[in-house]
Design a protein that fits this description.
Elements: H1 11-21, E1 25-26, E2 28-33, E3 39-44, E4 47-51, E5 56-62, H2 66-74, E6 76-81, H3 87-92, H4 103-107, E7 111-112, E8 121-122, E9 127-139, E10 142-154, E11 159-160, E12 163-164, H5 166-169, E13 173-174, E14 180-181
Length: about 190
């Protein structure tokens, strides 16, 4: 039997419900640079593919955070895959740091140059998407960010031929409250023709 817990959700009350019901959510561990060249690294769990051709990814900044300010100022960002070995570091970068503090440097997270954009990539991340700002859409208290993917980097060890292999990537996800999703068991099911 279904129970309706809440049918009239005020705007401010929807966030914890959406966070707990739209699960699991992949994490965009986004690295950016400020206009002054200060690095920023923060996780964003409202993340998805927006278009296949041309390749465009989307993520949402809930509130106006440093990541969004940097992307608007420079037009570039890198999405680093948040994997199981980095879970504690990903979580640590979600803390409120002063805009003049580089989270990666502060937390000892090794970074490396990207190929086509100025923001650095996370060395330990098994994959990254280098992006240039396509557009933004203001949505209430949030901003939807669309980024053109200009380069994809995947560790050779995470590849099975030409295909990134899920169990080698070990992506983590966000669930409700303080819960994290670990890499689940994979089941291959072919699409019907």
């Amino acid at each position: 039997m279904r129970r309706v817990i809440r049918t009239d959700v005020p705007d401010a009350g929807a966030y914890p419900l959406l966070n707990s019901l739209v699960v699991p959510r992949p994490i965009a561990w986004i690295s950016t640079l400020s206009a002054d060249g200060v690095g920023n690294l923060a996780p964003h769990s409202f993340f998805s593919v927006a278009c296949a051709n041309p390749p465009i990814v989307s993520w949402t900044s809930v509130g106006h955070k440093d990541t969004l300010a940097n992307v608007l100022a420079t037009g570039e960002f890198v999405v680093n895959l948040a994997s199981l070995p980095d879970l504690d570091r990903v979580n640590a970068t979600s803390a409120s740091f002063d805009p003049q503090v580089d989270e990666a440097s502060e937390l000892g997270i090794e970074m490396e140059p990207s190929d086509h954009v100025a923001p650095l990539r996370v060395v330990s991340s098994p994959a990254s998407l280098e992006c240039r700002l396509h557009s933004t859409i203001e949505l209430g208290d949030s901003v939807l960010v669309l980024g053109d993917v200009v380069a994809v980097t995947v560790d050779a060890e995470a590849m099975d031929g030409d295909h990134p292999e899920f169990t080698r990537l070990q992506p983590v996800s966000r669930l409700g409250s303080n819960e994290w999703g670990l890499p689940p068991e994979v089941r291959a099911v072919d699409r019907p023709r």
